[in-house]
Amino acid sequence: MFESMKIPIVFSFNDHYTIPAGVCIHSLLSNAGLNTFYEIYILHSGQRLCKENRHKINQLTEQFDNCTISYIELNDNFKNEYEVRNVSIETYYRLLIPNLIKKYDKVIYCDCDICFNGDLSDLYNISLNDKYIAAVANFHKTNISKKFKKYAKKIDVNPLQYFNAGVILLNSKKIFDNQVINNCILPLLGKKFKYQDQDILNIVFKDQSILISPEFNFTLYQNYDITQKWIPKVYHYLLQKPWNYPVAFGNIWWQNYKNSIFYNAQYYHESQIQQHSKINRDRVLGQLFELIPFVKNKK
Q: What is the value of pTM for the model shown?
């Protein structure tokens, strides 16, 4: 019998994200390899993630025997930080991971608007060598907009090397040993970056990161390549969320929801009806736009 491979993985969320986070973790555990054991850490504020919702998440350990779930409370950390695009302050918590979890040399962090479609052993086994972080490029080289190139220049990062921080493998020990958080990351807090802590991570680690296969953070809008030869192990739902709106590969999220302990038949059917209505609405709007004659602007 092979010894289990323990993989530390971190999430952070609040009460409003309890069900999406639960479905996310369900998909992680149900797609784990036979010899994979996940040590799950949840970073949270006691005022923003109640005991009842922590209990809901803990019920996953009754369904799966390949995990432990631990909570790390951060109290009022980052309470005054910049929030934009409905992204909460919990996103900043990942900045502190190396200072909070010292048991492992490497740690995975993942957002909760994700569905896992495979085991993460290959991700965890990536050799970081002397680099601080491994992540997926935020944009495919063919679809970087001029607007983003201009923004990347403003914050002094290479747009081709700019990574999405929704799934990252951290060289936690090196970051901690070199006091990167205290010396480089925390001094950048308080600045209004467009992409919040993701910008901070890209600025700090711009010359100390490894870009890895998009299979570990598949985002339709940003790194989709029809010539890809792999099956995504991670579906990351940027922008519109599958529980709110019809999105590509949203069926994967709903299937995990239906199979999870969080499934509620009434909520499921009401959501499907609402999403069908949104599809019809968009279809009708599209037909109306087709009827509008195109008029050239005259000089």
A: 0.90
